[in-house]
Amino acid sequence: MPELPEVEGYARYFARHALRQRIVRVDVRDERVLAVRKEQLARALRGREFTRVRRHGKHLFAEAGKQWLHLHFGMTGDLASHRDKSDEPRFARVVFHFDNGAHLAFEDMRLFGVVDLTPSPDVYIEEHILGPDPLDASFTLSRFREIVAKRRGAVKSMLMSQDVIAGMGNLYADETLYQSSIHPRRPVDRLRDDEVRAIYTSMRRVLRDVITRREKGGEWPRSYLTMHREEGERCPRCGGTIVRTVVFGRTTYYCKSHQR
Ligand SMILES: [Zn+2]
After folding, report:
1. Torsion of CA 234, 238, 244, 247, to 10 degrees
2. 208 catalytic, yes or no?
């Protein structure tokens, strides 16, 4: 399931393959991914160029004149650029054709993704009540402290609530807490200040690390919890036991020994 680092990868891919080329046609192969009428989508984009890409959490936006294309990748969304029509991916749902002969497909096997238009990313973020993006320059430690100060309940729930922080999914929430040595059920209002700082630092380090590794086609480090998500596994950090539980309705792994 695409989370923030994956969507950052798609944003870079989009920028490499689809910016500053005239859009000659938009083909909708399956309307179920659209949150806009297909005629409206085609009319808004035809003859224009994508001039800018912006990512916020798990959402990707591309500016085209007065409107922005919005893409959400659901569970199986992906982008694929191709030149030859016969290379169009099997689950292409929307295909953008450019006048340089390239095509960009939004593919999505399971159809949980969304393609639509918005006047601007900021309007979309406000209307959909999305929290700040954890890698945004404005997401400082003091901003994070303010967010934490207003919250109650389990720390993992806070990290996963899109209206609090946009883009953190299950894997990244678990990894962040593992690396901060914090138990996923710790109440937010009982975190010490050095623990709030540890969460902030780990969250951004993990996200950036995975983005860089993905770009290079690399694996996750063996020292990451993500590589040991199995009940009874040995913790690579302290040799303790990895435990499985459910928090915020999601399967959660943590180390029984060093996460407190
Ligand atoms: Zn451990």
Report:
1. -160
2. no
